[in-house]
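Researcher: Let's run the pair from yesterday's discussion. Sequence first, then tokens, for each.
Model: Starting with the first of the pair.
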Amino acid sequence: MSIATTKPRGLGALAALLAIVVLVNATRTYVVPEDWHFAYNVLLAGCSMGLALVAGLRADSLGLSRSSLGDGLRLGGIAFGVISALVVIGGLTGVVSDTRVDTGVGSMLWRVLVVIPVGTVVVEELIFRSALHGLLSTVLRPVPAMAVGSVLFGLWHVLPAAN
């Protein structure tokens, strides 16, 4: 599908995604209890991918083509394994010590193996590097699409970090 045919749908889906991301970021920070953040984030990722699909984007426009999926999963899996092992070892040995690791082993494993990689990393990748980038690419040239997406990704972190 050419950019010319996806531009009108892409613009509407882009506007909707931006509005939803702002709403979710604010409500997750100030309203939604922390126990619900994982589900809330996963729901946002699903909505963002749904908007991209409604706009006519397909796997290759979302960075999810079969030809690149294997390499991405392999490299991501290696990074996940190394970082998870380091965080778990650091937490259990006391090298890493803050409120996020002052918890039981089961809770720490849940956070390190599920909440952070799925509820944060995969969610942000699907929202910003897949759906948002794909939608921005329907209305902007590649470099401006990357620049705008990068700024929006940075802004996504301001409110939670300030709170």
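Model: Moving on to the second of the pair.
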Amino acid sequence: MCLHMRIDINTQIQVIDELTSTEPAFHTVIDAYGVPPLWQREEGFPTLIRIILEQQVSLASAKAAYDKLLKAAGTLSPAHFLQFDDEHLKSFGFSRQ
């Protein structure tokens, strides 16, 4: 499956069926928590940064850190991001990880 492909609910169900038939332990996860939500997000570097933040801290903390970064960076691109040293990133709420 192409990573850039936007999937719909039918594709998601097909993929989940394939996954659970390959590894039945995933049935337990689906039964307990349901089908994962399909979040539609813009593609690109800013979204990648936000997703990484959301995996590291609470959603509220991630949003606060992301907003501080956006305010400081203006346009968020890899080049703009690399201009910040560790101290700047910590001041926005980023952790070392």
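Researcher: Give me one sentence on the second I can quote.
Model: The helical segments are 9-22, 25-33, 45-56, 59-73, 78-81, 86-92.
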